[in-house]
Structures are given as C-alpha cells and as structure tokens.
C-alpha cells in the first residue's frame, strides 16, 4: 500500500464533472468502467464500494475512495440498514 503523500505526488489535478448521488436502501449506483481514476467522497450514510473483481471497501461519511483507472465499481447500501430512506450520499468525480 502506498502512502497518501506518494499518491498525492503522482496526481495530476484537472477540473472534471462532479455528480452527487443518493443511493437508497436496497439499491446500487453503478459507476461503470472509467478510463481514468475516479474519486468518491461519502457525504453521509454508509454502504460499500464493490469492485468487479469482488473486492469491497466500506463507505461512510467523510470517507474518500480513489478507484484506479479502468476498474468497474458499484456503490451499494449495507444490508439491513433501516435508519433513513437515503442510506448513502456520495460525490463522484472523474
């Protein structure tokens, strides 16, 4: 695993489209397969970011996840969550 400093040193910063999505209970947001890297920032709620190879990462408020180029990803709510109608809200850049 690389350090955050190493990751930031290798980044090229450019303005890209930004989308804010609400993923409701028992639903999923298909992020597709993007040529470049994508960044997801959870604004509230909790869920999982699942990659096509079966790997998954927990998503909760104030979590930043960088998905490598060409990786298909999907954001899903955690099973059994019943607190609010909207379980996870994420900002997606890339």
Mean pLDDT: 79
- Determine the oligomeric state from the structure: single chain
Tally of DSSP β-strands: 7
Highest CATH level, the class: Mainly Beta
Tally of DSSP helical segments: 1
Taken as a percent bin, the fraction of beta residues is: over 45%
Order of secondary-structure elements:
HEEEEEEE
> N- to C-terminal separation?
22 Å
| CATH architecture level-2 label | Sandwich
Biggest sheet features: 7 strands, antiparallel
Quickly count the domains: 1
- CATH H-level superfamily title: Jelly Rolls
Structural class: mainly beta
Q: What is the 3D shape?
A: globular
Q: Rg from C-alpha positions? A: 13 Å
Helix content: under 10%
The CATH topology name reads: Jelly Rolls
Low-confidence residue ranges = none
């Amino acid at each position: 695993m690389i350090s955050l400093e190493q990751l930031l040193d290798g980044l090229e910063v450019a303005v890209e489209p930004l989308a804010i999505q609400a993923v409701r209970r028992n639903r999923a947001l298909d992020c597709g397969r993007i040529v470049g890297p994508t960044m997801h920032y959870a604004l509230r709620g909790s869920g999982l970011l699942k990659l096509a190879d079966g790997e998954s990462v927990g998503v909760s408020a104030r979590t930043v996840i960088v998905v490598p180029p060409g990786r298909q990803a999907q954001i899903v709510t955690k099973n059994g969550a019943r607190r609010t109608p909207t379980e996870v809200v994420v900002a997606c850049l890339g």
